[in-house]
Amino acid sequence: MEKLHNPVLLSEVLASLRPKLGESYLDLTAGYGGHAEKILDVTQNYKDSVLVDRDSYAIEYLKKKFEGRDITFYHSDFYDSVLQLLQCGKTFDIILADFGVSSPQLDIKERGFSFREEANLDMRMDQRQKLTADYIVNHWSERDLGDIFIKYGEIPSGSARMYARVIVHHRPIHTTTGLADLIKTRIHGYSKTHPATRVFQAIRIAVNDELGLIEKSLPLLPQLLNPNGRLGIITFHSLEDRLVKEFLREEIEHGEESRLKVEVKKPITAEQMELFINPRARSAKLRVAKRV
Q1: For FRET with 170, which of 73, 109, 218, 220 sits at 20 to 30 Å CA-CA?
Q2: Which superfamily, per CATH, for 107-210?
Q3: What is the pTM of this model?
Q4: How many CB atoms lie within 10 A of CB 148?
Q5: Closest Cα to residue 236, out of 289, 288, 286?
Q6: Which residues lie closer than 8 Å to 266 by C-beta, 6 or more apart?
Q7: Residue pLDDT, tens place only, 10-53
Q8: Sheet of strand 72-75: strand arrangement
């Protein structure tokens, strides 16, 4: 099969989660199976492993990739999957969650995540949901747009409010390049990154409720781990990493009642060789904990 996605921090994930023959595995954001393939090559335990993704393209790819192997697939977001697994009483030796956007989502222009090429504003990770980037851009109030640019895009308040006002005054806006160009016209001077990058990040997070799902899921994950089970979480921006860092800190502060022990105090980042091969790994951070 064609390789669609380079899994970030692959060697670091394997070294940190230390998969062993016979162990069960839960991948909450399996994507195109890069991490799962290598871990399952070691564990060889397919029947007790679960691969989750909310993206229909990813699920279909995973089913073909692992055809003939007795793996369970969940086509849903990771929070709903966690709830289902808890109801079933499932537990695992290894859990991995990679909260980043996959390369195909960025590279397939029709998905509307990127402004490198013209496409309809979409940005849905789950194509079954109704809320799209187009709806947010063309129907949300100026105040609500400004709020998500500040909260999810980490854009200074003045710029965020200005972007929101400009968008509202130039509606309708239906394409990725149309929105990006509109934002760019309001910026004077040079910037290493396109000024619309943070705006697109904010809209994408809002469309997919990314932070809300993480915040609700994290406290439930220890219940899915077997004793001495390992949890690995990969984040790609400060908002995600802050939630994970705070969750792990709170777990540690429970003292003898702590459910998790943090394996590495500082997040693990990509080596220079990986950054050369896969520049998208530059912002990736891996945090690892063990069930006690």
Answers
A1: 109
A2: Putative methyltransferase TM0872, insert domain (1.10.150.170)
A3: 0.93
A4: 21
A5: 286
A6: none
A7: 999 999 999 999 999 999 999 999 999 999 999 999 999 999 99
A8: 72-75, 50-53, 25-27, 92-98, 225-235, 285-291, 260-262
